[in-house]
Write a structure and sequence with these properties.
Elements lengths: L1 H23 L2 H19 L3 H5 L2 H5 L2 H23 L3 H4 L2 H19 L13 H30 L17 H18 L3 H6 L16 H29 L2 H4 L4 H10 L6 H21 L3 H24 L3
């Protein structure tokens, strides 16, 4: 029965994506998007675009507006040309397209660029404890910033959008999403042996926080990893929820390619292989979100991948001594 279940889930997964590609593929739009993403990758990993343009704004306090502007440029530089190539003139003339997409992208950029909490002084805490609390805040800030604006948007403008931007009842093909993750495990394990991976993961390094709050290592590690996992719920809510399910009424399938380019760009502080894989992963998850009208599968896959990378980081440090 397990074999049949796996075969069925694979067929469902592939079928949904193939159906989407058949309906959506436009040679010029796809070629432009691929070319633009390659240019972005070259600018970032060859000429340090992100580290020169965006990273300095963290120390100057300008990241709260610099990140939204950076992401808006990337999003619209993909969305407008691909809509033109597809001759979607009605969408391009519709002010709601610009207003809604700007709202979603700018809100996400603002959340990522918000670092005012770093100015808080926890006078009764040790330096390591203060740093730990701020790391937890960093993982939960998107949820705090998103909740009220998205709730208002859902109750007013987007009453007919499925669920809370894809957080819906009765999700389809959850076995297929689980299979997608299982297929990726060998790739994740192999990637963990690269230098880029070892320099970036685990994101949380328990050995830097010994004896904080009189908790055991596993306790404060678990608390962080739960917060870390929850941040990926917010990532899926924005990218596959608002930017696909929330915009499909205005853009239809054309919502996927701009989302993919933007999704690639949020990985620019991470290893090159992660940015490249995000293009394919973002496209597949976007296609599935469009076809199924929910994001639960993407949430599950995203969290499983993220925690697998954390676990591999722990294994390299504690077991393999890398």
């Amino acid at each position: 029965m397990a074999y049949i279940s796996l075969k069925t889930s694979l067929r469902a997964l592939v079928g949904e994506v193939v159906d989407f590609v058949k309906q959506d593929f436009h040679k010029k739009a796809y070629t432009f998007t691929a070319f633009f993403i390659v240019i972005l990758l070259i600018l970032n990993y060859k000429f340090d675009m992100y580290s020169k343009l965006i990273a300095p704004t963290y120390s100057t306090g300008d990241s709260w507006w610099a990140k939204p502007m950076f992401y808006l440029v990337i999003y619209f530089f993909t969305a407008i040309p691909t809509l033109l190539l597809r001759k979607k003139y009605d969408t391009l003339r519709n002010p709601r397209f610009y207003l809604k997409s700007t709202f979603f992208v700018a809100m996400y950029g603002y959340a990522l660029g918000f670092f005012k909490y770093n100015d808080i002084s926890f006078v009764n805490l040790l330096d390591t404890e203060s740093a730990y609390v701020k790391m937890i805040i960093s993982q939960l800030k998107c949820a705090a910033i998103f909740f009220l604006p998205l709730t208002i948007m859902k109750r007013t403008v987007d009453k007919n959008v499925n669920g809370f931007y894809g957080i819906a009842r009765h999700p389809k093909h959850m076995n297929a999403y689980l299979t997608l993750f299982v297929i990726m495990i060998p790739f994740l394990v192999l990637t963990s042996f690269t230098g880029d991976f070892l320099s970036a993961y685990p994101q949380f390094r328990p050995w830097d926080f010994d004896n904080i709050f009189e908790m055991s290592t596993w306790e404060y590690t678990l608390i962080y990893e739960i917060a870390y996992a929850f941040d990926f719920v917010m990532t899926e809510l924005i990218f596959r929820g608002t930017l696909v399910i929330g915009l499909l009424v205005l853009m239809g399938r054309s919502a996927i390619l701009p989302m993919v380019a933007l999704y690639c760009s949020i990985h620019f502080g991470k290893p090159l292989v992660e940015s490249i894989s995000s293009v394919f992963g973002g496209y597949i998850l976007g296609a599935l979100a469009y076809e199924t009208r929910h994001i639960w599968g993407g949430i599950m896959v995203h969290i499983c991948i993220a925690l697998t990378m954390e676990v591999m980081g722990f294994i390299h440090y504690y077991v393999l001594k890398n």
